[in-house]
Amino acid sequence: MAQEEIYGIIYKATNMVNNKVYIGQTIRGLGRRKTDHIAESKRKSKHNNYFHHAIKCYGETAFVWEQIDIAYSKEELNNKEILHINNHDSTNISKGYNSAAGGLGGNKFVNKTPEQMAEIAKKISAAGTGRRHTPETIQKLKNRVITDEQRRHISEAQKGRTFTNETKQKMSESTKIKIFTQEHRKHIGDASRGRTMSDFVKRRITEAVSKAIIATEISTDKEIEYKSATEAVEQLNLNSSAITDVIKGRQKTAKGYHFRFKGEPSLTSEELTCLQPEYIFRTAIIETKQKPIRATDKSSGKVYSYDSLTSAFLELGIPISSISFAIRKHNGTYKNWFFERI
Fold first, then answer.
1. Distance CA 19, CA 55 (A)
2. What torsion do the CA atoms of 212, 267, 57, 216 make, to the nearest 10 degrees?
3. For residue 22, is pLDDT > 80?
């Protein structure tokens, strides 16, 4: 009798600092799923879930990943994910990072065939043909936020979807670069010539260029609003690149402040904890490679020795990930510094 093929696995990621866990499922292998989670945590997105914020906050080395179960069908995989999330109580914010109970989450389309889904799509399209939204509805659509659970449902619905050759051809054609004729270019130019922008448009452009900045003082959790990054630079006596690096996620803080654009989510209590100086000492115990390093200031030629990446970070203020990446990928070079293992 042929051995039944494994459909997918259930995995667990444990934060070694606070023992919180995340339970997940995958059909692509634990290594690939782990890589996806870490990549997602590095993206500057307000939609990142609680687990991804934790990875960004504590660092990927703070988590231990392990396979805890296997399944031989999609239904079994979903049921086992629900079971393990329930057993670990990982939707409890004090115990875990799961935001949902797991499984399919009520996806009523999951067992539909491609033909049935095509018919459903036609009915939905026909029902919406000719429909016009009210200004209030349009505004609501602009301001809507898709939750992580909704994104998961959408992802599940798309799995296994196939396209006809005709659809593939249309998708290919739509992505090709359009080449305008000289006559077409002239029409576009004539239509735009002499056009003036309204005060409303001018104001929107100005707002887009000069976004308000929120500076959070890590030691006090106090938030200060600035009209622009330029104003923050002047008031706090900082380098503009430092603020940009924090906003884009390249470093966590600058001179004791965390920065974000106004309108972006505030820091969670756990994220604030991660930015406290004492956090570094807590996470130092889970560093798997406590190898000493040597840092050379290329401008002055001075050489400094540190017993670990953490020590170098505390002294120089350069993120641990940047030092590690420089040693592994950039021949030891990071900005004006050269790092090497001793």
1. 13
2. 60
3. yes
